[in-house]
């Protein structure tokens, strides 16, 4: 079951665990890395639903494209 665009429950769990580990310390470096991870997670969540194809590669899913007939009189 997909929760977000291409992220499964395992992906959400991994991002959450990384965020918990990185924010557990008081180091500014760890907090900066955590911020970058949060931004990457947000970008992945905002991807369109068909952006990740069946093989899981980071490319548009052209398999679901609908062919629109031409408006020209050809």
TrEMBL record:
Keywords, sorted A to Z: Membrane, Transmembrane, Transmembrane helix
Chain ranges passing through the membrane: 7-23, 29-47
Record's keyword annotation contains Membrane: yes
Protein name according to UniProt: Uncharacterized protein
Source species: Limosilactobacillus reuteri (Lactobacillus reuteri)
Lineage of the species this protein comes from: Bacteria, Bacillati, Bacillota, Bacilli, Lactobacillales
């Amino acid at each position: 079951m997909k929760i977000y665009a291409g992220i499964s429950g395992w992906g959400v769990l991994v991002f959450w665990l990384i965020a918990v580990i990185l924010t557990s310390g008081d180091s500014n470096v760890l907090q900066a890395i955590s911020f970058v991870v949060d931004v990457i997670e947000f970008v992945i969540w905002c991807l369109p639903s068909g952006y990740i194809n069946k093989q899981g590669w980071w490319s548009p899913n052209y398999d679901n494209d609908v062919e629109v007939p031409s408006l020209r009189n050809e």
